[in-house]
TrEMBL record:
InterPro entries: Aminotrans_IV (IPR001544), Aminotransferase-like (IPR036038), B_amino_transII (IPR005786), BCAT-like_C (IPR043132), BCAT-like_N (IPR043131). One of its GO terms (biological process) is amino acid biosynthetic process. It comes from Leptotrombidium deliense. It holds the Pfam family Aminotran_4. Keywords: Amino-acid biosynthesis, Aminotransferase, Branched-chain amino acid biosynthesis, Pyridoxal phosphate, Transferase. Belongs to the class-IV pyridoxal-phosphate-dependent aminotransferase family. PANTHER family: BRANCHED-CHAIN-AMINO-ACID AMINOTRANSFERASE, SUBGROUP IIII AMINOTRANSFERASE. This is Branched-chain-amino-acid aminotransferase: cytosolic-like isoform X1. Its cofactor is pyridoxal 5'-phosphate. GO terms for molecular function: branched-chain-amino-acid transaminase activity.
Length: 378
């Protein structure tokens, strides 16, 4: 179902209450947060605070940055008025994988779901739900940290979980419909290290510096490489998103991404894109290295026809230009007829807004239970 049909369904079958607020602009933080903590061998129940930062702002910043895990979540208002969240079970599993690696107490599912519910119910009560007709969603961001100095060897005695949020849309970082990426030739992410495969805050330090360099050259983001050998470097990840590349030959199209072990974090969006790609007719999928030194030749020969990002804040966004060692490489992503990135994006957004009977909708989208204390597939 396309957007026009979606609007027709809403206006002919349902009457939305006036619960969309214009005062909260896209990118603007919600004026509240949810927190819960582990102290004295006991979990304290989730609570709402009238602050967009929450209690974690009082932590020693060095502790929070060095020993914390982050992740993000999106809530959508469906065509039926139901508020749903995308894959919280996947997110919790990844958070607790990181908790185990960093010797933080495992986050209890009941408190995690309760905190998510409290946040969206507060948004509902304040008439701050996102407007689906504007492709809006609630982007919530969590940080889980040791609230006292600790290290990776000893179990942290006190921890705190904080959930904040802001109004979002379907653009890359709420601003960009397309991406221009500068390739970082010399510095690499912590791929294959102790910090790989979970979102430790220390993994993002290299991205801040690289993105600052990219923006000075009028590029949106940074594309990092994976050093497979001393001479061969593979296209890997964007600063805070996974990367997909579409190849074309006489037999059709192939969607390509790097092997799981060669990416810093294989996120829920990436997992979803891979699953959806296998539903598209005449589209093959493969995990392989794409050598950066071959990129220009592969584009010039017409073998690479699309590149795009995937991620909770990055969304599925087409990449149109790459800069590598002063060379500009134009990627014809948006010039394609019925591009792969758009096919995947449309299926995904139909799932987000409940515009499909696809089985993945019931597998990936969760609703608040009647008692407000849990989430369930719906």
């Amino acid at each position: 179902m396309n957007l026009a049909s979606f609007m027709l369904v809403i206006f002919t079958k349902f009457t939305f209450e006036s619960n969309f607020i214009d005062a909260l602009e896209v990118g603007e933080p919600y004026p509240f947060s949810c927190v819960f903590s582990f102290k004295n061998s006991t979990w304290e129940k989730p609570k709402m605070l009238n602050s967009p930062t929450g209690e974690i702002s009082f932590l020693n910043k060095g502790i929070a940055i060095a020993n914390s895990i982050v992740d993000s979540f999106r809530w959508f208002v469906g065509y039926d008025g139901e508020v749903r969240i995308f894959r919280p079970d996947f997110k919790l599993d990844r958070l607790n994988y990181g908790s185990q690696k960093m010797n933080l107490e495992e986050i209890p599912k009941s408190y995690f779901y309760r905190c998510l519910n409290l946040f969206v119910e507060e948004a509902r009560n304040r008439n701050m739900l996102p407007d689906p007709l504007k492709n809006q969603s609630i982007y919530t961001f969590s940080i889980y940290a040791a609230s006292r100095a600790s290290n990776f060897v000893e179990q942290a005695s006190e921890t705190i979980f904080r959930l904040t949020g802001q109004m979002s849309n379907k653009l890359f970082h709420w601003k960009h419909a397309t991406l221009k990426a500068r390739i970082e030739p010399d510095n690499f992410k912590n791929i294959g290290s102790f910090l790989a495969q979970y979102k430790a805050t220390s993994n993002y330090g290299i991205s801040y510096v690289a993105d600052a360099i990219a923006k000075k050259s009028n590029y949106t983001t940074t594309l990092f490489l994976y050093p497979k050998t001393k001479r061969r470097k593979c296209l890997a990840d964007l600063s805070n998103a996974n990367l997909f590349i579409v190849f074309r030959n006489k037999k059709g199209h192939t969607l390509v991404t790097l092997h799981d072990d060669h990416t810093l974090y294989a996120g829920s969006y990436r997992n979803s894109v891979i699953t959806i790609s296998q539903m598209i007719q005449n589209l093959r999928f493969k995990k392989r290295c794409v050598d950066v030194e071959m990129l220009q030749a592969l584009v010039n020969s017409g073998q690479i026809v699309e590149m795009f990002s995937s991620g909770n804040s990055a969304q599925i966004t087409p990449i149109t230009e790459i800069s590598y060692k002063g060379e500009i490489i134009k990627i014809p992503t948006v010039q394609q007829s019925n591009p792969v990135y758009l096919q995947i994006n449309n299926i995904l957004y139909d799932i987000f807004y409940g515009l499909t009977k696809n089985a993945l909708f019931h597998e990936w989208m969760f609703c608040i239970t009647a008692n407000g204390n849990d989430l369930q597939k719906c």
